[in-house]
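Record copied across here:
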Amino acid sequence: MLELIEHRKMNDSAYKGIMEKRRTAHNISGRKQIQCPFRLVDIIFSDASAGRYDALGGSRSREDLDSAVSAENVFWVGVAIAFADVAIIEFGQLCYQDIHPALDRCGISPVVIVLHDAASLLAMWTKLKSDYAAPAAKFKLSGHHSQVFFGYCGGRLDLLYLKFSLDAGPELTNAIEQPLPKRSVLREHKFW
């Protein structure tokens, strides 16, 4: 029995490097860390992404649906490339620290890069948008007496960061809040 254990340990040490390379080759996406949404918001609100906001949400055109590669996919592949790029300094800086004290002492550093593919960045963005919807609605609701958005965030600094980014660049507000379509149908449902 001891020989088997010894043999197993030798094999583990011999194959550790090979197996680690295989795991990293198959698993591009790392786990989301606390700084990832901040870096993602910086990339989406950057000047490089400014002309491509139509790919973030809403309805897609017939041409886009029929094309081999959609504008949305191209956008998110570009975001994934920018997310992994170490050379772009502006994506590694935490903004708005002078606006709110919670961001000043948070210790979050978007300069730390965790590799994500386009699909995981899209999922992260979708989750951030859906989590932002409830605090934004409560903040705008009449009768709520707090003028501080952070009170509605439940301590989530990424939602506060998204709010400040939207205030600085309001052209993305419609892509975040997803207004109702111009034409909608209300159907009556009978419950009894």
